Amino acid sequence: MAGQFAISPEGALAYVHSPSVSLPTSDLVRVNRQGDVSALGAPPNTYRERVEVSPDGTTLAVTVQSTTDVRLFLYDITRGTLAPAFAQQAVRDTIRPIWSAKGDIAMQVYRSGGSHIALLSADRTGVVEEPLLPQSGFAPSSWLRSGEALVGNRDGDLWVYKPSASGDKWERLTNSAAQERYPVWSPDGTWLAYASDVSGRNEVYVQKYPGPGSPLLVSTAGGEAPVWNPNGRELIYTEPITNDPSRLRYNVMSALMADPARPGKPQRLFETNSAVLPARPGAATPCYSMSPDGQSFYTLQFRPHNVSRVTSLRLILNWFDDVRRLAPTN
Predict the structure, then answer these.
(1) What's the chain's Rg over C-alpha atoms?
(2) Which residues sit opposite 110 in a β-bridge?
(3) What pLDDT, on the 0 to 100 scale, is given for residue 6?
(4) How many CA atoms lie less than 13 Å away from 147 in the CB half-sphere?
(5) Contact between 138 and 132 (Cβ < 8 Å)
């Protein structure tokens, strides 16, 4: 139950109870290249927006939100088991899990004192945290190859974080008035795809990394949330449907990248909506990831959210008198 304080017409302080708002429930699902959705069999839960598949395709890293925290879970696709990633949960909120090619998981962690990067080893035996100051707003989204660096965004610009660097761990890639988000390295680490609104709307670009070279436009009618096919020869992204003012429907697009310096013409794979691929404006990372064979996507599907109607109110007047009676002061 939840509620709020109110003042009655007679000036009495009251506390009004009302039903609490429940967290949205979703299912872990697989979506093929035609847009067909199949449930994985994981229990429905209050999963957060990002679903990340391991490099070998056997495990999903997901976060589950409760009324008190956000925890990292691992779902074994073959065995159909969902278990916490940590033996003991510290006092922290864990979001945006990102697998490296060697099996480590990077996460953004919020705890008392600010934002941290946490690195969970591939054998699951150790978690190392580093405070992100002075870049506490950094949201990581992609590993470089086997874990040399993380790329992400902070305040609309792209940054690279190098955990093993002995000196300055930060490299700034962009510094403009445009909003750049969703950076993701190609599997070989030589190209960086991202979305930018430099043209006045969000479009997907690729740029040689570490350079030199200028950004190359990939999308043709708007685009966000790019994801590389693990084969490195295709870029997937979402394209908004222009006649949908709600921004709840969009197309999943494919652009061939056999030569990223000459992106292919984007082709529509299927139309979907935010109940299946919960892409939201302003998100830091894509909500979905691509299977190692490039034939399907892992994401979550929201269940219909029925908001409870308020059918009764419980009004307690002069409740301070009861408090004083039950807990008298000396």
Answers:
(1) 23
(2) 93, 115
(3) 46
(4) 17
(5) yes
Q: Which two tokens stand for residue 156?
A: 């609309």
The 10s digit of each residue's pLDDT in 14-52 is 444 444 446 789 999 999 999 999 999 999 999 987 899
Looking at this protein, which amino acid is placed at residue 85? A
Please state, as a whole number, how many other Cβ atoms lie within 10 Å of the Cβ of residue 294. 17
Phi, psi angle pair for 293, to nearest 5°: -85, 0
Q: Which CATH class is domain 22-306?
A: mainly beta
Task: Tell which residue, 62, 122, 48, has the closest CA to residue 97.
Answer: 62
d(CA 215, CA 205): 6
With CA atoms as reference, report the closest residue to 49 among 290, 278, 296, 236: 278
Bridge partners, 296 (sequence order): 32
CA distance to 23, 25, 157, 217, 309, per residue, from 306 (Å): 10, 10, 38, 41, 9
Q: Which residues belong to CATH 2.120.10.30 in the chain?
A: 22-306
CA distance 51 to 62: 5
DSSP state of 276: T
C-alpha 305, offset from chain centre: 20
* Angstrom distances, CA of residue 89 to CA of 71, 72, 75, 118, 124: 8, 9, 17, 13, 14
Q: Is the distance from CB of 275 to CB of 247 less than 8 angstroms? A: no
Structure tokens given for 59: 């495990």
Question: In whole angstroms, what is the distance from residue 135 CA to residue 50 CA?
Answer: 22
* CA atoms of 295 and 315, how far apart (whole Å): 57
Residues 248, 252, 253, 257, Cα dihedral to 10°: 120
Residue 317 scores a pLDDT above 90: no
Sorted by sequence, the CB contacts under 8 Å of residue 80 that are 6+ apart come out as 40, 41, 42
pLDDT given for residue 329 in this prediction:
59
Whole-angstrom distance, CA of residue 107 vs CA of residue 72: 9
Strands 139-143 and 127-131, bridge-based pairing: unpaired
